[in-house]
Amino acid sequence: MVSAILLAIYFLSIGSHLLLWFVYVRQYRFASLIFDLLPFYPIFIFLYLIIQLVIFNPIGSSSNALLRLSGIVYYIIVMFQLVVFYNWARIYSIRNYELFLNDIRDHSNLRIMNWNEIDGDLSGNPELVTIIIRHDVDINPSRTKKMLELENSMNIDSCYFFRVKATTYKFDEILPLIENYRKSNEITFGFHYASVTNAGGSLEKAPSVFKQEVTEFREFYNIRFVAGHGDKNRNRRLITENLVNLEELNLVSAYDLYKTHYISEAGGLRKVSEQFGSTNINAQLNQIKHLDNGSVVQILIHPDWWFKHIWIR
Ligand SMILES: [Zn+2]
Question: How far is the CA of 292 from the centre of ligand 1 (A)?
Fold first, then answer.
């Protein structure tokens, strides 16, 4: 009887870990709640370890060799998760992002470009390092709100790209955000299109879906910039394969803006950048101040992945 209960606890704890990963991988709207829990993960995992230790006692003697082995395997998985989550929590903190923004301000040769000044033929000021900040919003507008508040309080110029149809949030939910900041001179809004996905993967239907979504967005905000959402449907094909004529629609693709350097944390903890090598996102951002004047750096930050750190620095 006791062993049945222990076994149930064991599978429940493994199940909850798998569930968290599933939610994260599928990027459901509450995936960003998991990120909110990140600073507490070491505590959760520590508790799991204690439970497992009580149940399996892998160091001591256990009657069932198979259970003992699975207990050891589970320890290894949990320890691995501990390292991964610790790293994530340490790197992706809004505090780190704020430090980076402060750093830019302290360097007189670094200048953040306002999106309203940008046009298709942007080229860098030879006297300065020009920085363009872009945000793609994939999961949950609430985390975006935190980043918007931070940037607004610091008068930082950036552009937030929102989706019109997303599985994780409704366009209606972002309207109050746009309304709130539409008069701000610093904040601009763009369209994070996933029109191939929204057309059920059909490249034939995607262009009309794209145009309809642009119209929908423009009923509320006159967008000028678009950026494709990266998923299995590779939405960017709409533009790279010339399926929509952006010029006709008076739109500019963020990817096509002139740049000498590109920094993105889209790879999560895979810290690889063509230009900045294998370093984490914070180290990459820090390297900006060592670039030659005349450089133009586009930075892509997903607000969903950044949280207010509580105790990890
Ligand atoms: Zn995206």
Answer: 30
The C-alpha atoms of residue 71 and residue 124 are separated, in whole angstroms, by: 57
CA 117, 122, 127, 130 dihedral sign is positive
Residue 66 Cα to ligand 1 midpoint, Å, equals 43
Token pair for residue 229?
């959402």
In three-state secondary structure terms, 292 is: coil
CA of 289 to the centre of ligand 1 (A): 27
Return the beta strands (E) in 155-295 as ranges: 158-162, 187-193, 225-228, 252-253, 261-264
**Helix/strand/coil for 41:** helix
Please state the domain extents for the chain: 2-90, 94-305
Strand partners, 296: 130
CATH of 94-305, one of 1.10.3720.10, 3.40.50.1970, 3.40.50.2300, 3.20.20.370: 3.20.20.370
Q: What is the pTM of this model?
A: 0.85
**Which residue is associated with the tokens 């262009």?**
207
| pLDDT at 37 (0 to 100) | 72
Measure 266 CA to ligand 1 centroid, in angstroms.
9
pLDDT, tens digit, 9 for 90 and up, residues 139-181: 888 889 989 999 999 999 999 999 999 888 899 999 999 999 9
Neighbouring residues of the ion ligand 1, judged by CB less than 5 Å:
136, 138, 229
